[in-house]
Amino acid sequence: MNAPAQFRPVPLAIVGGGAAGMFAAVVAAGRGLGCLVVERKARLGAKVLMTANGRCNFTKDLPAERMLDDLGEPVASFVRPALTACPPARILGGFHALGVRTKRMADGRLFPASEKAADIVHAFGDRLRDREVPLLFNTPVTGIAATPKGFLLSTKSFTLSARKVLVATGGLSFPKTGSVGDGQNFARDLGHRIEPCRAGLVGFEAHVPRVARFEEAAARVRVDGAVVCDYRGEVEFERWGVTGAAVYNCQRWVARHLTKGERFTLELQQGHERLNLESPTARPLKEAIVTIGGVARADVDPETMMSRKVPGLYFAGEVLDIDGPTGGYNLSIAFATARLAVASILKTL
Ligand SMILES: Cc1cc2nc3c(=O)[nH]c(=O)nc-3n(C[C@H](O)[C@H](O)[C@H](O)COP(=O)(O)OP(=O)(O)OC[C@H]3O[C@@H](n4cnc5c(N)ncnc54)[C@H](O)[C@@H]3O)c2cc1C
């Protein structure tokens, strides 16, 4: 009788088949690194399908330096190595290599030419099928344990052995897409600090005089009278408050920087029309475009995306305490951190 077959751990297990997980798997497969993707939901990229109202603004045509300026601190310093190695031009080239035709808006935002996010998700899925990358759907990972030889990933019905693990489980907004905060819990259990998770890029609740729309407004945040952030763009007045890209970006600034509940004024202006809102409340995290907070940047090496606490464990995307303004920045940093994680893993094998 033959000796029992040796169980071989998978070289890389990617937890989460969203933006970062799909990108990581395509890069890994392209470099011949054996990997599999474990995904909670029944399909890849549920959140990506929602992006830009189903159109997917996947990056912005900017040099890395400009994108870093727009991201601002403290995010920019952390994502600098990832974004420098994988700037928007490289992300665009990656999509072209996947066969996605793209279009550029006047402001530099990049979309699939079809303006269908599904084309992006299908392109990833097709490439992973062609490269025979195993995709485990309907499989929430329930725990990650470090072992002397790597990791054990628990699921409801089986345990998986992996040499390296990339956690790409996303933030906590729109939980129906599958991002429910599991990665942050795994990281906490493994000794990482988790920065409080809060809504980013969401509207403010406020009593507004009427339902209306400013096409090209100025939205500013003032603290003690001084302007601390200033955006131009669309502002919409809803029955419950204010929304639109310029408002979202101001809200992100407030959530990131006024962490002790400091008072501020949101100033909205179009021509001679001006509205000042005093410390309006942000809408809930579950409605937000992005999660601010997550795995502490200090606990992850920005040069490799590897945990400083658990060797062999990597993070990418929104599970980390990184976020950007509207306009393709959040997908860009998910892709760039994913690519850096895989490139770093390849160097260790
Ligand atoms: C309405 C909306 C519009 C947006 N529009 C844009 C846009 O136009 N441009 C832009 O740049 N960004 C946009 N974003 C933000 C962008 O979608 C996210 O920042 C990005 O998807 C984050 O990628 P990620 O891979 O980190 O997380 P996700 O894409 O959320 O993927 C995480 C994946 O992990 C899976 N998962 C979670 N837990 C487990 C587990 N325990 N086991 C297995 N799998 C698990 C989830 O099911 C999910 O598929 C938008 C977001 C929203 C909500």
How would you describe this protein?
The structure is a single chain. With 349 residues, the protein is an alpha+beta fold. It has two domains: 10-198 and 287-348, 3-Layer(bba) Sandwich (FAD/NAD(P)-binding domain); 203-283, Immunoglobulin-like (Sandwich). The chain is built from nine helices and 19 strands. The protein has helices at 19-30, 51-54, 64-71, 75-85, 88-97, 117-130, 182-189, 245-257, 329-348, and strands spanning 10-15, 35-38, 59-60, 102-104, 109-112, 135-136, 143-147, 150-154, 159-167, 194-200, 204-205, 212-223, 226-237, 241-243, 265-270, 273-278, 281-282, 290-295, 313-315. The strands form four sheets. Strands 1, 2, 6, 7, 8, 9 and 19 form a seven-stranded mixed β-sheet that branches. Helix 1 packs parallel to helix 6 (117-130), helix 1 runs parallel beside helix 9 and helix 3 packs antiparallel against helix 4 (75-85). It is globular and about 75 Å long. The relative contact order is 0.19. The model has no long low-confidence stretch (mean pLDDT 96). Flavin-adenine dinucleotide binds at residues 15-21, 38-41, 46-48, 50-52, 56-57, 140-141, 168-170, 173-174, 177-180, 182, 289-290, 317-319, 328-331, 334.
